[in-house]
Specification:
Number of strands of chain A: 15
CATH topology of chain A: Rossmann fold
Signal peptide (chains A, B): 1-25
Protein name (chains A, B): Alpha/beta fold hydrolase
CATH superfamily of chain A: Alpha/Beta hydrolase fold, catalytic domain
Number of helices of chain A: 9
Domain AB hydrolase-1 (chains A, B): 88-291
CATH class of chain A: Alpha Beta
Distance between the termini of chain A: 14 Å
Oligomer: homodimer
Largest sheet of chain A: 8 strands, mixed
InterPro entries (chains A, B): AB_hydrolase_1, AB_hydrolase_fold, Carboxylesterase_BioH
Keywords (chains A, B): Hydrolase, Signal
Number of domains of chain A: 1
Strand content of chain A: 15-25%
Structural class of chain A: alpha/beta
CATH architecture of chain A: 3-Layer(aba) Sandwich
Chain lengths: 361, 361
């Protein structure tokens, strides 16, 4: 029941009846109907507290005896009227924050609002030491190093300064301006344990939900699944690292022009937790089948290869992992950010189909 | 017409008729009606681009020839159905981000949602080099230095570990946990010019609007007013610095146990721009009338004094500045964050009254 079948043409997902249809749906003339939000807000979750020795003196304050609350995730949420049961929890990838899921670089609705219209409660994470969760328990040095042409290539928009032919990314210069400005640095060392701890605390707080991850967030999604029973399904867009295998069954590192990808071994008893839920993984276009000397593209060749090895291993132990390379199901031109590409409604329909087929909607 | 009169009891602001009343108002039984949102999203605005010399080589990327887009503000927004004409643009203060205006530390609706219910489009800023606008054009070092007891005192919640008697702040330990976690560091040097440039770019983009500022944001509000014609009114909660006077009329520095407050001189032709719009300034409770040796409280004594001098000078040149010390109008117990204190509906009613009296609603 967990495996999805895909047609070349993905059917538009019908939104069910009543109030939410008139209020939250996108109307047929392309104008958006109002969103009806039952509740919205934000909070910090997880994290820790460090305390300096000594005694605080209010009249002459020094760090003595003071505390620092840090390493939490920051979460904003919206719960629509007539909500579906399971919320979607969205986690960004490398160098990104909640913006990944918000308004697209060219100004259209992102998955945050698309899936609100489809009546899912939506939670957006800024991971610990990133964006609005910038208060960490460790000090940091941040270098303002120009690197955007590298990201343009690594995110498979094209090979700078050229866009890939047929790429699902607006050629409007302001779209690229917005795209570059949705990067934000690590404020403190990247620490997968700190992040997955905070994400697990979120699922423990809000109850059963679906985890939607991007890129580096993919590996954090698997790691979080080991720490909470409340992840009921995972949708991973272009997971880039952190693939977990049973100790003794870890595949060899995969070299590419973009670096060598290593998998991680964990005890099999832990690994088996990954076999209990439906997981779908999507990769976009412009991923070479054989090694090429462009590091921006070639790194994705081995990530896709590792994802398939991981699928096979999880499913060998009774799991329910599907890997979809979008061009193979007739969806072309997607970058590393399929959910904000020009065809993101189609990409959302595919995700809705997965959720429906696995009774997660 | 710009001056407000205040009664001890602030009348509840009536929300006008029709759909928005039923959809966005708070119902009389205390349960919140759904929010009806016509449009929501986020974007970067302002900022600059730095470019490294050299040529980018996609096959062996180095910083050569690459760009960095930084120093923008990050803005999220919601526009309600049946919107009022002028949006509210909210700017946080020192060490804070958009969270200042979102869910309160004890979990109630903040000004973001309260004023959406009152049918204002709401824009929330993360200023350049802060929070989700963390991508700066300068490098930075961030020290994880415990300092929260100092903030507890400076924000006038109490004198650590004691709460002020009657303070409008929840004693629930989780409220304090959330409060401390809404701090986030500067990611790059604090630069008022960079921030007011980005804020002015926002007003130039969205058109006429009202600026609602907090603390350090107050001075940035005056500075932004010099750079855009689209600020039609200012509501400043507890402005802490950046008071602008005509050159030659700058008052002497004001010493306090919390440091010495200096005003800033600007050309009179620039200063006169501040006389053209209605401005209201609110300060909360627990501000001493005479010098005391507690720096957390005493700094606010001179900020309130400077605000009154500034009011007198702006109004001397035909301006429309009102300073409200909340205890003087019968509103007691407020901290440095009146808009998220336990009585924030009452504080919001006062702001609505100012907007109405100045035809800004």
């Amino acid at each position: 029941m967990f495996r999805s079948r895909f047609n070349r043409t993905v059917a538009v997902v019908a939104v069910s009846t009543g109030l939410a249809l008139s209020a939250n749906a996108q109307t047929s003339n392309g104008k958006n109907a109002p969103l009806m939000i039952q509740e919205q807000g934000s909070f910090a979750v997880g994290g820790k507290v460090i305390t300096n020795p000594g005694t605080f003196n209010p009249k002459q304050p020094t760090p003595d005896g003071q505390t620092l609350h840090g390493d939490h995730a920051y979460v904003s949420y919206e719960i629509p009227v007539n909500r579906r049961k399971l919320p979607l929890v969205f986690l960004h990838g490398t160098g990104q924050f909640s913006k990944t899921w918000e308004t697209t670089p060219d100004g259209r609705e992102g998955f945050q609002t698309i899936f609100l219209r489809r009546r899912f409660p939506v939670y957006l994470i800024d991971q610990p030491r990133r964006g609005d969760a910038g208060r960490g328990t460790v000090s940091a040095t941040i270098n303002a190093t120009p690197d955007e042409q590298m990201w343009f290539d690594t995110f498979r928009v094209g090979i700078w300064p050229d866009y890939f032919p047929g790429v699902q990314f607006s050629k409007d210069p302001d779209a690229l301006n917005q795209y570059f400005r949705q990067m934000t640095p690590n404020v403190g060392a990247y620490d997968p344990k700190v992040i997955s701890d905070a994400c697990a605390a979120l699922f423990d707080k809000i109850g059963p939900a679906i985890f939607v991850t991007h890129s580096q967030g993919g590996g954090l999604g698997w790691a979080t699944t080991l720490k909470t029973a409340n992840i009921k399904g995972i949708v991973a867009y272009e997971p880039g690292s952190g693939f977990l295998f049973p100790e003794g069954e870890v595949p060899p590192p995969l070299p590419s022009a973009g670096g060598t990808l290593e998998a991680i071994g964990i005890p099999k008893s832990e690994f088996l937790k990954l076999t209990k839920i439906p997981i779908i993984i999507y990769y976009g276009d412009f991923i070479p089948e054989k090694p090429i000397d462009n590091p921006g593209q070639d790194g994705w060749r081995v990530r896709l290869e590792m994802a398939r090895k991981w699928r096979d291993t999880v499913n060998h132990y009774g799991g329910h992992v599907t890997v979809i390379h979008l061009p193979e199901v007739g969806i072309h031109g997607n970058t590393h950010f399929p959910f904000s590409d020009l065809n993101n409604q189609q990409v959302a329909d595919l995700m809705s189909k997965f959720l429906k087929e696995n009774a997660l909607d």
